Amino acid sequence: MLSSLESEYLKGLISTYKLKGYGYYLAHTVTENNNDYDVCVYFSKSKIKAIDQNIFSIENGLKIYIDSSSRSYNTSYNTPRVVLADNNFNATISVNVAEFVYTNSILGYSEETYVLNPDIIKSGSTNYETDCFGIVVVVLICSFLLFSFLRSILRMK
User: Fold this and answer.
1) How many Å apart are CA 26 and CA 39, to the nearest integer?
2) Are 41 and 51 in contact (CB under 8 A)?
3) How many CB atoms lie within 10 A of CB 93?
4) CA R_g for the chain
5) What is the mean pLDDT of the chain?
């Protein structure tokens, strides 16, 4: 599973590459076993096709490694080390079933779109201010309605 640092960094990276025309992505964790990176991300200008839950076909893409556990990254900004591994990536990849996969890929053999893995951009809100604001608005509306109801009852007597 992605750490909060990796999750937020990945969301920013996805937004940045989307502006560059790479509208599709596949990200998966890499279990630590003396690996040089923690997350592998693929971006593509073409649709990434899911052959099944862990096998994907990527064309016209980029392959990026993210290492958030490295001590060589800039700790003043708390950003991970990022390495562009391949800027012309065309392959079918298989992700280990033990890894967490996040993607906006489509099911390759289907006429309809089916979700096989979560899309990190569409997974729950992580914006604390927005959540708090919504709660405050609901409480204020409920308080106003309760006050109006009690006032109307007291006027009836």
Assistant:
1) 10
2) no
3) 17
4) 22
5) 78
